[in-house]
Specification:
The complex is a heterotrimer. Chain A is about 40% helix and about 15% strand. By secondary structure, chain A is of the alpha/beta class. Chain A has 2 domains: about 140 residues, D-Maltodextrin-Binding Protein, domain 2 (3-Layer(aba) Sandwich), CATH 3.40.190; about 170 residues, Periplasmic binding protein-like II (D-Maltodextrin-Binding Protein, domain 2), CATH 3.40.190.10. In chain A, strands 1, 2, 3, 4, 8, 9, 10, 11 and 13 form a 9-stranded mixed beta sheet that branches. In chain A, helix 5 packs across helix 7, helix 7 packs across helix 9 and helix 8 packs across helix 9. Chain A is globular, with a radius of gyration of 24 Å. Chain B is mainly α. Chain B has 2 domains: about 160 residues, no CATH class; about 250 residues, MetI-like (MetI-like fold), CATH 1.10.3720. Chain B has 16 helices and 2 strands. In chain B, helix 1 runs antiparallel to helix 2, helix 4 crosses helix 5 and helix 6 packs across helix 16. The longest helix of chain B has about 40 residues. By secondary structure, chain C is mainly alpha-helical. Chain C folds into 3 domains: about 55 residues; about 140 residues, no CATH class; about 220 residues, MetI-like (MetI-like fold, Orthogonal Bundle), CATH 1.10.3720. Chain C is elongated. Chain C starts with a helix and ends with a helix. Classes of the chains: A alpha/beta, B mainly alpha, C mainly alpha. Chains in contact: A-B, A-C, B-C. The interface between B and C is large, with 102 and 99 residues. Strand 2 of chain A pairs antiparallel with strand 4 of chain C, so a sheet runs across the interface.
């Protein structure tokens, strides 16, 4: 009994030691990054694995920041080749990359993701402006009694915000402040909405910090519920609670169109077409970044790029569009395709 | 020879050495009849020989395999033409990757030229040599050390004591792993935590009553507020854990008592493993159950009674978590209750006590330290549980004692902060490490107190 | 005097007798309470299981469409060389498309045709390719084949899409429903056992996605965990319980172990990232690293349970063994450890079950990944079952809901198999002092 366990322990110790040596070679592409791009990248990877002689790339969902951290850690097989991002790379990240020897990065824009504000089909569809959303969700809003000063948000129901909206409690499930979706929402909806007030707009020139604090701060008194990154869960919670609204990616609205409906923003309903022609105002670009030094060292990167930027993938009727990615206009796509083929590295930000 | 086969051969050598050592010990005293003249039992001589044959060789094999890769790589690089060798280290690493892929027969991304092919062949050659050398070295060490040990076998050699000393050493090493783990954890969170406390004062973090890490996501942006007070997080964690224990301790303890002292052997043999299933259900599943089945039900019930219930109430997460930890309480208390000597029960029955009186007044006090241990284990699971609260408890850091309100926990915040899209050197990411460190320290404190209590009330039956 | 003492004794019995009813009632109440607790626990188990089974059982069948496919040589192998490499590159989509279109010759508009084509899974052409690979003689033949249907059609057949909802709210349009009804009338829609679900790796198409890859990953991860944590855990428990001198060092170790059991699993993930990946340079997403992290995580659980089991062996056993001249080591390994084995196994089961269902620490070491190829060893990139559940639960496609539940069912099946095995082991040893 004792001897047996000793033998097993010894054998497994040797096995573990044996593991250390195999870290050297890698014959598959390693991709990390944003959970928003993940559903699209995986489709391309699967297609790529099936139609070429290369292995299927490994894709991790780490969030844009975590992905860029891994990506910028250095050149070499132990570092990923590609990172997906739901926002552009930042200056500080580019600097870190450069510090670690990752100097040439190819940026590929793949399309747009609409951000929907939706509720259960059991309730009426809402039609609101970005100003309404700003007033409903901001931490401090202009005093409803008048005057150019900010007060803590007093609105409790949608009707308080805008008389044409229903008399239900403001309850919005949305992403946490660590999320790129939240960042985009703050920029596209909140900042835009608050500029409707002249005195806040004037602040932009005089006191930028105060302007941004006024515009982008989201209330913390329970009306805005941070609901994590699991968009499916938000959809199911919306179904269970007809009074609540949720903020999430368009692809989830698309897949669950029988349960939830997107609210009209500034009179425009979020549909595939309105996002593509940018009449629906709340959408953001998606990217991925390729380490140029790895092209020619890890097999298949060029071919993966070609697959991703091919018409059948991110084109107007490509398979990514079926998964909910909003394609770019034809001309922009051509430019991206050209840059990806030429492997033009991006300049300094 | 492949490494796994080598290890199998080595195991064979050990078994053979065991046999030889044992036979020799008997032979030196003239067979079975003289076995009394031996210092130790014959098997100990076998173990002694086997351990000497096996352990040094395994150690060498382990070290060899660990360093083999880098040695071969540097030899291959050495053999490259100068033009290829004089590259920055990162580029060289990628080149080596290609060579390795080529040597393994995998797809290579660049055009295969003569140099590359030569390097790959060189690598394969080195590998073959390495494998052969390893086999030779390891087997000769095994045979050499084994035969030395074998020769020293004799009636006066204290084989048992020597074997026991080696075994004792192994046991000590095993128990030290816990220390290494702790040191590792502290090391891996300490550094980032210091960077965090460089940005946010320690006192703000420890005593702040507001948690709202809404600082700027980008340099050109301003968030609402950047409050990093950890108190609401810990309050939320404790609230949810308390609810969980409120569910789990009565149910778990009562079912343990019933299964130990009332239930027939049949019920016991079926019910116990079925209850243990609850501990193994993946927490992701509980999370969905809490978020989608229980939380709406509680909300509906609450609204029917005229209460405002958050759709992510602490109650839902706590109840489901309670269900999850029932088996931790019941399984471990069951073992402890079974361990109370039958004589104590018999004595109590002989005095005319009923079963429940025996349980309440004799068995429970005797089993208390063990039960406390089980409850503590359950509590620690509750505090550290992540997935249930991620899905069911939400992210709003309210400082409240109302179980119908939405609270957040430390683990939820760690996950959210670490998988977010923000910059990785922002205070937000670093806060996760600081929270991890603080959580670690808090649980350490709790455990020291708990162990102290357990010791104080421990009763001995000797 | 005797009279008085008699009277006294009678009084004591009276006291006992009068209180007896109350005591028995309390006894019965206590017993019912205990029984209730057990029933409540079992009730939770059954609710959970019924909920998941109810959601997931449909994933074990998959809708297929029976079509007559013509393996057109002009499409597969126009040059007639029967070269497999060339054939693999042929457009097999044409074959399945043509087969379906021939049933609906009236569909001619481009958009309608696209909708019609979309009824078949993107895995269907691959299915045909595999058949040709297996038997090249098929080229030029006609065969009746069950082709995999698209996940939307699958959901429609299984009743997860509401036919009565307005068309704009449905993923499946009226036109497609009409086609499906037509096919059903012809008896071409079949529900077949979903083998792919068990053997395939992950996929973004729900009808092609399987848990084969994740199960293999879980297997390797748990193998590493079990091989390391059981012997180390038992050894550490034996040392601390039986041999360790009671001093400050062993106190420190004890506090440490109890504390490690309370450390949230995600912190072990941080440790794994810093130590195994960054320091030792082990590959990300490898079951080996996952196994090491889970070993460190489950060790405290196993050690604590094993110590409790050792503690429960009565001292008389040890004294008896020592009394007949056994050494301390012999006493422990020949008598105490075998007697404590059932308890140690219980602890190991709980530890393993915990490891099998664990997600959080694996988030940090790169195991939350999209991996199509099935891992062949503890160093290949892979994911594990609970992570697969987590990933699928986050996928937008409706058909992943039932697959998520089905994956949970498989996970639970593994768990129950492990438990049963351990229970059998334990029952052979269990003993009461």
């Amino acid at each position: 009994m004792f001897k047996k366990s000793l033998i097993i322990a010894a054998a497994s110790a040797a096995m573990v030691a044996g593991g250390a040596q195999a870290a050297a070679a890698r014959d598959y592409i390693s991709i990390v990054g944003s959970s928003t791009v993940y559903p699209f990248a995986t489709v391309v990877a699967e297609q790529f694995g099936k139609t070429t002689q290369f292995k299927t790339p490994k894709i991790e969902s780490t969030g844009s920041g975590g992905g860029l951290k891994l990506f910028c850690a250095g050149v070499g097989v132990e570092h990923p080749d590609i990172t997906n991002a739901s926002r552009r790379i930042k200056k500080s990240e580019q600097e870190l990359c450069a510090k670690n020897g990752v100097t040439e990065i190819v940026e590929v824009k793949i399309g747009y993701d609409g951000i929907a504000i939706a509720n259960s089909k059991a309730s009426p569809q809402l039609n609101m402006s970005r100003k309404d959303l700003y007033l409903a969700l901001a931490k401090d809003v202009p005093d409803p009694k008048g005057g150019d000063k900010l007060v803590a948000n007093p609105y409790q129901t949608w009707k308080d915000v805008n008389a044409s909206l229903p008399d239900t409690r403001i309850e919005v499930l949305g992403p946490p402040p660590t999320s790129g979706t939240r960042d985009a929402f703050a920029e596209l909806v909140m900042e835009h909405g608050c500029q409707e007030f002249a005195f806040i707009k004037a602040m932009k020139k005089t006191d930028k910090k105060a302007f941004q604090a006024a515009c982008m701060g989201i209330r913390e008194d329970g009306a805005y519920i941070e609901a994590g990154e699991n968009d499916n869960l938000i959809v199911q919670k919306l179904e269970a609670n007809p009074n609540a609204l949720g903020i999430f990616g368009f692809s989830f609205l698309d897949q669950n169109a029988d349960k939830i409906q997107g609210s009209r923003i500034d009179g425009v309903e979020p549909t595939f077409d309105t996002i593509a022609d940018s009449s629906y105002p709340v959408s953001r670009p998606l990217f991925f970044y390729v380490k140029k030094a790895h092209i020619g060292a890890v097999p298949g990167i060029k071919e993966y790029l070609a697959e991703f930027t091919s018409d059948k993938a991110f084109g107007g009727e490509g398979y990514l569009a079926d998964k909910g990615l909003i394609p770019m206009p034809e001309a922009e796509r051509g430019q991206v395709m050209y840059d990806a083929k030429a492997l033009t590295p991006m300049g300094a930000l | 020879m492949h490494t796994p086969i080598l290890i199998l051969v080595l195991l064979g050598v050990m078994a053979f050495a065991f046999h030889l050592g044992r036979t020799r010990s008997l032979a030196t005293v003239g067979g079975r009849t003289g076995v009394r003249k031996l210092h130790s039992l014959p098997a100990y001589y076998g173990f002694y020989t086997a351990l000497w044959a096996g352990l040094p060789a395994l150690l060498v094999a382990g070290l060899w395999v660990f360093f083999e890769g880098s040695v071969i790589t540097s030899l291959v690089v050495e053999g490259l033409p100068a033009a290829l060798r004089d590259q920055p280290p990162a580029q060289l690493g990628l080149l080596v990757n290609d060579i390795t892929n080529l040597a393994n027969g995998n797809i290579v991304s660049r055009a295969v030229d003569a140099d590359l092919r030569a390097a790959a062949d060189h690598m394969n050659e080195l590998r073959t040599i390495g494998k052969m050398a390893l086999s030779v070295v390891v087997l000769s060490i095994a045979l050499g050390a084994g035969s030395l040990a074998w020769r020293s076998v004799g009636p006066s050699m204290r084989a048992r004591n020597r074997v026991e000393r080696i075994v004792n050493g192994l046991l000590i090493v095993s128990s030290l792993i816990a220390i290494f783990t702790t040191v590792g954890i502290v090391m891996s969170v300490l550094f980032e935590s210091f960077r965090f406390f460089h940005k946010i004062p320690l006192t703000d973090f420890l005593f702040g009553l507001e948690w709202s890490p809404q600082i700027a996501l980008r340099a050109d942006q301003v968030g609402a507020s950047g409050a990093f007070g950890a108190i609401p997080l810990f309050a939320g964690t404790l609230l949810i854990s308390a609810i969980a224990l409120f569910v789990a301790v009565p149910i778990g303890l009562m079912s343990a008592i019933y299964l130990a002292d009332y239930a027939g052997p049949r019920l016991r043999s079926y019910a116990k493993p079925v209850l243990e299933v609850l501990a193994g259900v993946p927490t992701v599943v509980y999370g969905f159950f809490a978020a989608l089945t229980l939380a709406p039900a509680i909300r509906g019930a609450g609204e029917a009674m005229g209460l405002t219930v958050s759709s992510e109430s602490a109650l839902a997460a706590g109840l489901v978590m309670g269900v999850m930890i029932i088996p931790f309480v019941s399984s471990l208390s069951d073992d402890v209750i079974n361990a109370v000597p039958q004589s104590l029960r018999d004595a109590s029955y002989a005095l005319g006590a009923t079963r429940s009186e025996t349980i309440r007044q004799v068995i429970l006090p005797a089993a208390l330290p063990g039960i406390m241990g089980g409850v503590l284990l359950a509590a620690s699971r509750a505090i550290g549980e992540t997935m249930i609260v991620v899905m069911a408890a939400g992210l709003s850091a309210n400082l409240t004692l109302n179980p119908l309100d939405s609270v957040t926990t430390v683990t939820v915040q760690i996950v959210t902060l670490l998988v977010g899209d923000q910059e990785f050197d922002s205070a937000k990411t670093l806060a996760a490490f600081a929270l991890g460190l603080l959580l670690f320290i808090v649980t350490l404190g709790l455990n020291i107190v708990a162990l102290h209590i357990v010791r104080k009330y421990r009763e001995q039956y000797e | 005097m005797p009279v008085e003492s008699n009277a006294n004794r009678r009084r004591a019995i009276d006291v006992v007798n009068t209180s007896l009813k109350k005591r028995y009632a309390r006894e019965a109440r206590f017993r019912r309470l205990g029984f209730g607790a057990v029933i409540l626990g079992l009730l939770f188990v059954s609710i959970l299981f019924f909920d998941i089974i109810g959601k997931g059982y449909t994933a074990f069948v998959q809708t297929h469409i029976e079509l007559e496919v013509y393996f057109d040589p002009a499409v597969i192998d126009p040059e007639g060389k029967r070269d497999m490499k060339e054939i693999a590159r042929a457009d097999f989509r044409k074959l399945s498309r043509n087969a379906l279109r021939s049933l609906f010759p009236e569909v001619t508009k481009r958009n309608d045709r696209r909708a019609l084509d979309a009824m078949l899974s993107s895995g269907a052409p691959h299915q045909l390719l595999e058949m040709v690979r297996h038997d090249p003689a098929l080229i030029g033949e006609r065969r009746v084949i069950d082709l995999i249907a698209d996940d939307d059609i699958d959901m429609l057949i299984k009743g997860h899409i509401d036919r009565n909802a307005p068309q704009s709210d449905r993923r499946v349009k009226d036109q497609v429903i009409a086609w499906v009804d037509e096919l059903q009338k012809q008896g071409r829609v079949k529900e077949k056992f979903n083998t792919g679900f068990f053997v395939n790796g992950d996929s973004r198409e729900p009808e092609l996605a399987g848990i084969g890859g994740a199960a293999a990953g879980s297997f390797y991860t748990l193998l590493v965990t079990l091989l390391l944590s059981f012997p180390i855990g038992v050894a550490a428990a034996v040392y601390l319980e039986e041999f360790a001198p009671k001093n400050r060092w062993t106190d420190l170790i004890e506090v440490n172990i109890n504390n490690l059991a309370a450390v949230p699993s995600i912190v072990f993930g941080l440790l794994g990232l810093a130590m195994f990946i960054n320091l030792f340079g082990l590959p990300r997403s490898a079951p080996l690293v996952g196994g090491l992290v889970l070993t460190l995580m489950t060790l405290p659980t196993i050690i604590i349970a094993a110590r409790a089991a050792l503690k429960s062996v009565p001292p008389s056993i040890r004294e008896a063994a020592l009394g007949v001249g056994a050494s301390k080591m012999q006493t422990v390994f020949h008598h105490v450890v075998p007697l404590a084995m059932p308890g140690m196994l219980t602890g190991t089961i709980i530890g393993m079950a915990q490891a099998l269902g664990e997600t959080a620490p694996l988030l940090m070491i790169g195991m939350v990944a999209f991996i199509v190829d099935i891992p062949g060893g503890p160093l290949d990139p892979s994911t594990v079952l609970p992570v697969q559940v987590y990933l699928w639960a986050d996928s937008p496609e409706r058909a992943f809901v039932e697959r998520t539940s089905a994956a949970i069912l498989i996970l639970l099946a593994f768990l129950i198999a492990m438990n049963t095995f351990a229970v059998i082991m334990r029952r052979r040893f269990e003993r009461r002092w």
